[in-house]
Structure formats: C-alpha cells, structure tokens
C-alpha cells in the first residue's frame, strides 16, 4: 500500500466502506469475513466508493453490495457477470466487482463464466462457495461433495463436484486464486492483488455455511498453501493445483499478462445526416 | 405503352441463383429514378437452397403494402411457377426461363419466354443471369431503366473486369426486351426526380438508435434481428460507444442493464425466442426503474416457429410477459420510416420514464426496403434521464424518492454521495430492501402511475380517414399499411372508413381509443396472430366488444383481405376493381 501523505486527502479505513444496513447473514457465516476482506482491499487501494460498482446475483452472498459503500447492482439469479461486463464496457473508469455464490456462478449462471474468462475484462469476480444452497435452505449445489446428503439429494449427491478454477484457467482468465474465509489476511491480499490486476481476476473463496452445511472443519482439514516456489505463470502447474480433489490448495494459482477485450473510448456524437446519406437512392 | 399507377414485379427462383439480387437492384434503380418502392421477400430458413422470391412494388404515390396482385412474375424455374402463378391477375405478364420452366398449356395468360442463360452466354457473361433478368424487366416495363447502369456500377462495379461483363449482360437483357413482340402494355416510370432514402426496417432502426444516442449495445444473433446488431456494431466503429455480442440473450440484456445503470443509453435487439429469455431481466429493469430499449423483430412462433416468416404474435409477451406486476412501454412501427421515428421515441421514452421499452418490428419490416423521405432531424431531439441536481449530502440521496410524477432523479456511478444499490427486491425510497406491505404498495403504485400520462397521450396514435364511419379499424405495427391502403380504396368507392393506428400499444392509449369508438359503430381489429392479441387487450381495458380479425399464415395482410372484411361489416357489395 502506498502511503498517502497529503493531509487534504481523506484516508479511507476499512470501516468507512460499511453501510448502515446490517448483513442478513447467520452468525458465523463465512461471508462476514469476505465482506471484511473486501473492505480491507478497498482501503488498501483507497478506492473511492463513488467510483466502485459491484454487481451481484441472488443468494445469501449476493446481498453483499447492500452492505458496502458502493454503487450496487443486485440483479437476478446468476446474472452478476453479464451486468458487471455491461458496467465495465460502458464505464471503463469504474472499479468493477462481481460477487455471489456457487449457485449463482457455477449453476444458473455457469454459462456466463467461460465467456467472462475469455473476455478478460478488468473485473474482480469473488465467488463465496459454501458448497450448498443456503438462502433456499439446504439443497445440493454444483460444488457439493459427491455422496453428501442434502434436502434435495436424500440419496446423496450423485454428481461430481465441478472444479471451477480449472475452468477459469482453461478459458482465459488471467488471474486465478483461492482464499478461505478463515484465513482473512491472505484473502484480503488476494482480493487486493486481483483488483490491481488489469484483466479478469477470479477469486474462489471457501466460505462455509453454518446453517445448512458446516464445512469449517472439513475445509480446515483439507486446505494447504500453494508452495512459494510455484510459478503462477506456469499454466500447467497451475492446472495441476486447480484439478486437485483430495486437498484444497490456497493462494495464487495462475497469473498471466492480461488481454482484456478492448474497451472503447468515450462516444462521439453520431452524424445522423451523414449516415443517412449512404441510403440516398 | 400505358403508364400504370403502380406496378408489382415478382422475381422467383432458387436460393443462390440471384433472384434476390435482381429484385434489389430493380428496387434501387426504380427509387433512384424517382419512384417510391416497397419490397417484400421470402427466403427459406435453410442456409442454401430452397425457394426464394423478391417482390418490388413501384409507384408515383406513397406505397404502404407489397401490393395485392402481381403484374409481372419472372419465374426462374418450374418451382417458381408452381408456387407463384396463383398470384397472377388477369392482365398479368409471365416471364419464364424456357430452359428451366414450361408453363402448362392450360395457362392462357400473356407469357414471354426469356432464355436468360443463353442471353448471358451470348453476352460473354455466363454468370450474368440475374443482370440479364434485370435488363429484361426494366427494358420491358420501365421502372428505373435510365438508372440501371448506375446501379450496376454501384453494386457490381468493384472490379473493372466484372463491371464490363455485367454491363454487357445488362445491355443484352435490355436489347432482348426490345425485341419481344409485346401483347401487353404495362409500363411505369417516375413522374419526377426525388431524393429519397432506400432503406430496410433494420437499417432505419440502427439509424434511429444511433441518432437517439445509444452508447451501449448488447446483442446475440437471431433472425430477423441480427442486422440491427451488425449495423450498430459498424456504426459504433465510427462513433465509439460500447458493443458486446454476448453469449446469449440473457447476457445481452443484462449487459445493457449494467450499462444503463452505469449511466449510458443501452439497447438490445432480438426476436421472440430471445425475448422470452429476457423476460426476467425486463422485470428487473421495471423493478429497478432502469431505462432499457429492446427491439423485438417478430417472426412466426411459438418456439422456433417460422424464423423467416412474419407474424405479430409477440404482443402478449411484450405487454404481459414476466412475473409480477412489471410495467413497460410497447411501441410498434408500421413502416420503415416509423422504424426510425419510433426507435428514437423508444430511447427517449426509456430515458424519460426510466422504464424498459419494447419496439416491435417484424420479419417483413426488418428486410423490406422502402423509399423514405429525408427526415427533419431537428424534430427528433434526444431526451436524457432525470439526474440529481446540485451537491448531495452524505446518506441523503433517495434513488426512488417520492415525486409528483413518480419519476425520481437517477444517479450514476461517479456521483458523490449518491451511492445506492439497485435491487430486484422490493425497496424503500433509498433503494434499501424493504418487504413491508407499505413499501410494496407505495412502490407498485409509483412504478405503474409514472406511466399513466401515456394512457391519456395522443402522441403515439395516428388517425386516418372519415371523422364518422360505420366501420373503424384499430391496428398496430406492420398491418397498418394494409389498413391505410384499404382506407384509400374504400374512400375511392364512396365509403366512409376510419383507421386508428396505435404506434404505442402499451400503455394502451385508452383516451384516444374511447374517442374513436364514439365515432364508429363497429371496431375491426386486424392482426397477424391466432388469438387476436390486441383485440383482447382492447376489450379488457375498455370493456367494449370489438371484431377481431386474424391472419396466421405467416404472411403480411394484403389490402384486399382487409377490404373484403370491411365491406362485409359495412353490409355492402364488394366493388369490382380494375
């Protein structure tokens, strides 16, 4: 973080990004830590809330913009990414985040993911993955472990959980990382780095649900730090970490030179008369 | 030769054999010479192959329909004869390629064999069949004969070696026309020079959108709306502006909503299947009061339906589509000129009322060309959404503030102290989620009543014909052309008829309709769908029975079809025309 010495400049602290609205989340929900980590990252980068736009979908985690000082767009289920890309294309000057959960990004909105990855726009996408549908009270999600019994899978989940980081790396996202809500310092750091990255940054966050699938202990037993000697530019090595199923690596998996879809400049007035003259008989 | 008031020429053949190109050049030449034109085409849904036809109607008067009968049919093959000979009237002329088509002996009408391949070969241009046909038709019937070489230059003159051989084919066609021993006397030429645009509906929508200040376009390919996306993409290369071909229609409309939320005027264009996918997003735009324009170029439905045929069957989904009470504005252009006018109006209304606006065109309107008189652009100013004024105090900004006209100043990212979250949840004046009975009552009323002035407005209603009449037609969209054509004939035959065209279908302009209903005894509502969608809306909103008249054969209404019903309702004998 760059120190700001000019006394006329307001220095924003993480708490300055809070709104008066209290989160609706259950006590102990991982999303509190994600919200705090985002505030840390915003303060670290001294983002002005007036220049911050956050799109989300539907789910517990998608309420997040309401609790943050920002311009929020709390859209319909699964559509945070198209909305975020619309904002970014229209207003390249804004800092744009897309936030939500595993249902939003990996199930109903999964069709948007590879396209957001390959367009590689300067958007930070934070997925709070609790491996369950929380807001609708406990149905299986695309990342629920195989065999896990939920209200909607009384026989156990019969589909394999998806591996979203592998999808991200293979489809062109230029920044791919995983954090854990119980490791808030690293999480804030990853979010900050993601926001500094000039392409699409995909941050997968393990963020347990205490009410419908309490995975705190499972996650703690399975996570480990990607070793320092990992080269994030090595796509094959990153892919190897991304495809692990027995354990859950944390940290920066992959970072490449961003190749964002070109964002056009400010629109010039349209010369309708000249345009119409082309149609003169 | 006898100068005709108007002339309808149909060129029919196999997809890929140039019949469409022939028709297009014919229309261009006629327009350049000063005639008004109106084209109509059908194409197969397949990529290659299948029967196509291109029809050009040319006149010295305004033309609003494709014409009821074909004066000249050029059949490139037997299939073309089989599909189109019924359209020939008593005094019509058949041209046919004797190598590909033999009219049956039972056909007693006027027919001329035109060996187009042979003429092309003799002119040294084996592939010049369509240019030969162009020369033959213009040589025989006038149209834009004098302007033909210009058009061939413009269309085919990119490479010098092709230009010479095409001009040779054209001249051979004209010479052949002159050599025919005619037994007919059909002829039309322009009464004077006019400078008009020749445009398709899609092109006019693009021009209107750009003129109205669209800064963001999100789209996804679909027939018959793709040309709008392509046109905007190309226009934006010159002006800047942001454009996205998205991964599906949901993404394209959500990107538009994101862009509009961020302060830019945004638009998408689609057809029925895409509109169905956008329904949830339209409700979101209603709920969050985000300006948005969606063009729906209707085609035959439901499901994939008839992608290359026309219908007016998306009115219900446009007006009612979506869950909950979700208000929106629905406009319906009837002509290429109105495609421009109502697209500008659509963008402006979306801004003024902070509402989703649907503009309903259709397949026939998307692809047909019409001559359009130049617009006085000063009559089409841009409207911008209401913004918060002055410096705002922290935490005071109310995005959905109560106001007299229910329209609240809308902030955009970048404005100081105006942070808010636009949520699809019911909300209070600040935009914060609120699910109290009071919040839902207040906000539902706000969203609906802000559109109330439009119900009383006459700005998007056109009335034509007699001030009082036994029969009055209420129509919308593309059908209005046939209704106005019918009106002209009815009045020529000494009958009163009145036509009310709804350019805005929703909110339904009830005041204008009520007044119209007082001036006529029987209300006829013709439309291209099975259910009589507008008729049902009018009956529901005005509690007055109307005579629904529907056609659902995937073709536009013909003037004579409307007239037939009008005379029946009048209780008069149908006059014999010609």
From TrEMBL, chain B:
<dbReference type="InterPro" id="IPR009014">
    <property type="entry name" value="Transketo_C/PFOR_II"/>
</dbReference>
<dbReference type="InterPro" id="IPR002869">
    <property type="entry name" value="Pyrv_flavodox_OxRed_cen"/>
</dbReference>
<dbReference type="InterPro" id="IPR029061">
    <property type="entry name" value="THDP-binding"/>
</dbReference>
<feature type="domain" description="Pyruvate/ketoisovalerate oxidoreductase catalytic">
    <location>
        <begin position="16"/>
        <end position="174"/>
    </location>
</feature>
<dbReference type="InterPro" id="IPR033412">
    <property type="entry name" value="PFOR_II"/>
</dbReference>
<dbReference type="InterPro" id="IPR022367">
    <property type="entry name" value="2-oxoacid/accept_OxRdtase_asu"/>
</dbReference>
<feature type="domain" description="Pyruvate flavodoxin/ferredoxin oxidoreductase pyrimidine binding">
    <location>
        <begin position="208"/>
        <end position="442"/>
    </location>
</feature>
<dbReference type="InterPro" id="IPR050722">
    <property type="entry name" value="Pyruvate:ferred/Flavod_OxRd"/>
</dbReference>
<keyword id="KW-0670">Pyruvate</keyword>
<protein>
    <submittedName>
        <fullName>Pyruvate flavodoxin/ferredoxin oxidoreductase domain-containing protein</fullName>
    </submittedName>
</protein>
<dbReference type="GO" id="GO:0006979">
    <property type="term" value="P:response to oxidative stress"/>
</dbReference>
<dbReference type="GO" id="GO:0016903">
    <property type="term" value="F:oxidoreductase activity, acting on the aldehyde or oxo group of donors"/>
</dbReference>
<feature type="domain" description="Pyruvate:ferredoxin oxidoreductase core">
    <location>
        <begin position="469"/>
        <end position="544"/>
    </location>
</feature>
<dbReference type="Pfam" id="PF01855">
    <property type="entry name" value="POR_N"/>
</dbReference>
<dbReference type="InterPro" id="IPR019752">
    <property type="entry name" value="Pyrv/ketoisovalerate_OxRed_cat"/>
</dbReference>
<keyword id="KW-0560">Oxidoreductase</keyword>
<dbReference type="Pfam" id="PF01558">
    <property type="entry name" value="POR"/>
</dbReference>
<dbReference type="Pfam" id="PF17147">
    <property type="entry name" value="PFOR_II"/>
</dbReference>
<dbReference type="InterPro" id="IPR002880">
    <property type="entry name" value="Pyrv_Fd/Flavodoxin_OxRdtase_N"/>
</dbReference>
């Amino acid at each position: 973080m760059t120190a700001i010495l000019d006394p006329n400049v307001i220095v924003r602290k993480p708490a300055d990004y809070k709104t008066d609205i209290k989160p609706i989340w259950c006590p102990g929900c991982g999303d509190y830590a994600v919200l705090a980590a985002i505030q840390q990252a915003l303060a670290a980068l001294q983002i002005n809330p007036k220049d911050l736009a956050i799109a989300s979908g539907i789910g517990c985690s998608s309420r997040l913009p309401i609790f943050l000082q920002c311009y929020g767009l709390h859209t319909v289920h699964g559509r945070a990414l198209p909305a975020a890309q619309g904002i970014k294309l229209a207003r390249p000057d804004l800092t744009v985040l897309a936030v939500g959960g595993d249902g939003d990004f990996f199930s109903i909105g999964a069709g948007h993911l590879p396209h957001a990855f390959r367009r590689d726009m300067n958007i930070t996408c934070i997925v709070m993955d609790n491996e369950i549908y929380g807001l609708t009270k406990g149905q299986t999600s695309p990342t629920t472990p195989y065999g896990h019994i939920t209200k909607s899978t009384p026989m156990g989940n019969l589909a394999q959980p998806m591996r979203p980081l592998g999808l991200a790396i293979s489809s062109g996202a230029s920044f791919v990382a995983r954090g854990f809500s119980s490791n808030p310092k690293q999480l804030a750091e990853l979010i900050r780095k993601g926001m500094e990255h000039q392409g699409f940054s995909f941050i997968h966050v393990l963020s347990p649900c205490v009410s419908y699938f309490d995975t705190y202990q499972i996650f703690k037993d399975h996570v480990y730090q990607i070793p320092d000697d990992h080269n994030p530019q090595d796509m094959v090595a990153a892919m190897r970490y991304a495809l692990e199923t027995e354990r859950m690596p944390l940290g920066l998996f992959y970072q490449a030179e961003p190749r964002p879809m070109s964002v056009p400049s400010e629109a010039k007035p349209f010369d309708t008369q000249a345009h119409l003259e082309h149609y003169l008989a | 030769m006898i100068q005709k008031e108007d002339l309808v020429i149909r060129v029919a053949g196999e997809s890929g054999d140039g019949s469409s190109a022939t028709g297009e050049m014919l229309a261009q030449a006629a327009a350049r010479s000063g005639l008004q034109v109106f084209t109509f085409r059908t194409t197969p849904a397949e990529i290659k192959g299948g029967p196509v036809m291109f029809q050009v109607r040319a006149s010295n008067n305004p033309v609003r329909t494709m014409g009821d009968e074909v004066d000249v049919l050029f059949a490139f093959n037997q299939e073309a004869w089989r599909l189109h000979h019924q359209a020939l009237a008593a005094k019509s002329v058949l041209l046919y390629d004797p190598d590909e088509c033999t009219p049956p002996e039972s056909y007693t009408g006027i027919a001329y064999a035109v060996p187009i391949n042979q003429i092309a070969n003799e002119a040294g241009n084996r592939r010049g069949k369509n240019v030969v046909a162009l020369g033959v038709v213009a040589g025989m019937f006038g149209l834009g004969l004098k302007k033909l070489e210009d058009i061939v230059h413009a269309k085919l003159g990119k490479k010098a070696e092709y230009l010479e051989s095409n001009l040779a084919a054209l001249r051979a066609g004209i010479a052949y026309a002159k050599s025919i021993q005619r037994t007919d006397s059909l002829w039309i030429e322009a009464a004077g020079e006019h400078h008009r645009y020749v445009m398709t509906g899609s092109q006019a929508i693009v021009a209107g959108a750009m003129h109205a200040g669209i800064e963001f376009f999100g789209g996804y390919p679909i027939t018959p709306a793709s040309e709008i996306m392509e046109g905007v993409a190309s226009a934006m290369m010159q002006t800047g502006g942001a454009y996205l071909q998205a991964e599906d229609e949901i993404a394209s409309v959500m990107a538009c909503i994101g862009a509009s939320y961020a302060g830019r005027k945004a638009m998408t264009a689609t057809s029925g299947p895409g509109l169905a996918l956008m329904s949830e997003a339209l409700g979101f735009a209603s709920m969050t009061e985000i300006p948005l324009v969606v063009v729906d170029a209707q085609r035959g439905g439901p499901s994939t339906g008839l992608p290359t045929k026309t219908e007016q069957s998306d009115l219900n989904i446009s007006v009612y589509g979506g869950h909950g009470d979700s208000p929106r504005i629905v406009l319906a252009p009837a002509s290429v000129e109105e495609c421009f006018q109502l697209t500008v109006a659509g963008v402006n209304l979306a801004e003024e009322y902070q509402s989703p606006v649907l503009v309903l065109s259709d397949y026939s309107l998307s692809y047909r060309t019409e001559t359009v008189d130049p617009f006085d652009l000063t009559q089409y100013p841009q409207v911008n959404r209401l913004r918060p004024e002055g410096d705002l105090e922290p935490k005071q900004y109310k995005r959905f503030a109560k106001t007299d006209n229910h329209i609240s100043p809308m902030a955009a990212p970048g404005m100081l102290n105006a942070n808010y979250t636009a949520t699809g949840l019911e909300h209070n004046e600040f935009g914060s989620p609120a699910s109290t009975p009071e919040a839902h009552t207040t906000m539902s009323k706000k969203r609906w009543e802000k559109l109330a002035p439009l119900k009383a407005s006459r700005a998007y209603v056109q009335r034509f014909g007699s001030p009082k009449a036994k029969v009055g037609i209420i129509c919308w969209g593309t059908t209005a052309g046939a209704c106005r054509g019918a009106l002209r004939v009815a009045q020529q035959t000494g009958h009163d008829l009145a036509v009310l065209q709804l350019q805005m279908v929703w909110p339904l302009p009830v005041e204008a309709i009520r007044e119209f209903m007082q001036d006529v005894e029987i209300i006829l509502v013709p439309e291209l769908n099975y259910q009589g969608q507008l008729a049902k809306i009018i009956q529901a909103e005005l509690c007055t029975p109307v005579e629904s008249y529907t056609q659902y054969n995937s073709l536009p209404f013909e003037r004579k079809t409307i007239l037939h019903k009008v005379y029946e309702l009048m209780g008069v004998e149908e006059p014999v025309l010609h």
